[in-house]
Specification:
CATH superfamily of the largest domain in chain A: Alpha/Beta hydrolase fold, catalytic domain
Order of helices and strands of chain A: HEEEEEEEEEEEEEEHEHEHEHEHEH
Distance between the termini of chain A: 35 Å
Largest interface: A-B, 51 and 52 residues
Oligomer: homodimer
CATH architecture of the largest domain in chain A: 3-Layer(aba) Sandwich
Number of helices of chain A: 7
Number of domains of chain A: 2
Structural class of chain A: alpha/beta
Helix content of chain A: 10-25%
Strand order of the largest sheet of chain A: 12-13-15-14-16-17-18-19
Amino acid sequence: MKLRLLPFALLVSLAASSGHSQTQTNAPAEDWKPASSNQPGKDYPKVNSEGRVKFRIVATNAQNVGVTFRDSSPFTKGEDGAWYGYTRPLDEGFHYYAIKLDGAEVPDPSSLMFFGAQRWGSAVEIPAKDQDFYALRNVPHGQLREVFFYSKSTDSQRRAFVYTPPGYDQNPEQRYPVLYLQHGWGENEYGWGVQGRAREIMDNLIAENKTRPFIIVMIYGMTNETRMGGMRDFDIGPFETVLVKELIPYVDANFRTLSDQPNRAMAGLSMGGMETRTITLRNPDTFSHIGVFSGGSIAVTNITDLAAFKAGNRLVFVSYGSKELGGDRPTRGGDPKAHAEALRQAGINSHFYVSPDTAHEWQTWRRSLREFAPLLFKP
Amino acid sequence: MKLRLLPFALLVSLAASSGHSQTQTNAPAEDWKPASSNQPGKDYPKVNSEGRVKFRIVATNAQNVGVTFRDSSPFTKGEDGAWYGYTRPLDEGFHYYAIKLDGAEVPDPSSLMFFGAQRWGSAVEIPAKDQDFYALRNVPHGQLREVFFYSKSTDSQRRAFVYTPPGYDQNPEQRYPVLYLQHGWGENEYGWGVQGRAREIMDNLIAENKTRPFIIVMIYGMTNETRMGGMRDFDIGPFETVLVKELIPYVDANFRTLSDQPNRAMAGLSMGGMETRTITLRNPDTFSHIGVFSGGSIAVTNITDLAAFKAGNRLVFVSYGSKELGGDRPTRGGDPKAHAEALRQAGINSHFYVSPDTAHEWQTWRRSLREFAPLLFKP
């Protein structure tokens, strides 16, 4: 089966320009502070209390400097010869961007580098009122392990990241449930561990006794070796083979997992949510818990054998950012809230979550993981 | 004690321009292939059989495009409107660079991003005749684990990378020796695991039964929280405290180490080699094996109590790239080969290695690790 995922590519490309549509009528608040997403020792970009971002670009001989955020101020040369410009107020959370420089689009050399929008490049973190839930706190930490395994179906060494919860190495008799967690289109297996803050979110939830400790496995969600490319003809089959036939057996052989169906979940964002829906519905004996973040929803009519599904499924969780819903932007596959309610009426453990004031971006998905994790693997 | 490390900063800044000094008299060989260090799906930069690198930069309105490699060709606009230019033949191995664009120095958006020269930015990999020893092969793989621990002396959560060898999780009764392995000035704790290929080198050596399996721990070698900054006034004390008083106890408590002195080594490159020399000589009861890569050497006169040192030390390994030696460039602290021989004469297990045809760059240090590892922790 070919999945037509083009609408997701469109959403991802829109993401960098989401946020308030306020225009530049007023002067920005002059309480700029260096962004937490900056490279070591870099003062710029700076963020102010309105959520605006101010850039400083050294390009002495450039004719034209700008940034990919829409509705930004013109960039002008300061007294030090560097170029300065700032954005409109942006949503809380994480936003990819690039610098425009005489016709080039390049990473901002002052930003840390993140993989999204099909490239390693710059992004900026806007402080959020609820940022403590994904902060690196002084609590017991799990480990994020980079592993490689041989995939026979693709004849390649494939990278996965595995989060093991605090105490994993100290309790050699304990076994853990596993969540397979997928990134979105244009992203890769680094996304959840870096900008997604999956490690910090889990460490903090576990420290507060809000979730059962479990393992998380993150892998690249396609099999095109040059990476990315068109979504139009994306065939989920080869990825499904890697995940179900190769990665899961590898993880169960190399980590202390609870390897039965009630202890295995899959979730993903955007394209990864769509992959989750397809793969979990096709493999009900493999997965018991389903999470779809900004990636469509599951209608009762999507389920072939409702009685069998009800017997084996333990959770269907669907989420969106509030700015993805309503208005004139159609939600893929129908009203997700109505679908969630219908599932509940049909006797399924169905949850629907809306992240306040966020769009198709990582702040929505960080919060989705925070809401999803405590619902998993209940005794 | 303050260490004056300025000469290393100089060497590091020179590194990107090292290589043959052949001028651009002949046309380059037209056998260009995409570099292995490119971002997914990127055709450029390309490398040819002479070790030249060819760049393609889209910057339609730029007046001037170039690259930080000295003696590169002028960049000119191609028929597609993009800018093209190429380097002189470069040494085999790994080289940091940046793109120059109308007065800006920016990462090449087509390159993967590496931390060195004090920034996350671009680099290019020139295929080496011996590249198989650091290739990702189909052998049993260890894990590279990102961990965070609380450092009381700096009141901060500090990141370390820990390589656990293949079989670590499968043999819960086995304990392992530990190597603490340091990066150079302007680099950080990612260096050895990414461009240093420490994981691949160890996996391959272990698969060939050339080394005993051991754990490697990598941490940022300074304590300035904004990172980097001047070397002139660098004080090694705070880092020594983090390493010896905090990181080692953390590792011994959280990994299955052999925690006695005979099973603990320290090594490092450039600044990290100098740190290794200072810290191991100050802490002879903590470390038994010493590796100094392109970072000076150890003279008999550096050792305060030779008899005690001989009783506790099991290895002193010093290495350089051949292009760092001889000529009119003075080697820091005297002739390293003569020092190594004098140590040997004094009854110390002293080894000296020279990497052929390489300079103060990662190819020297990859080979140094390959030569050093098999000498460690012999029964």
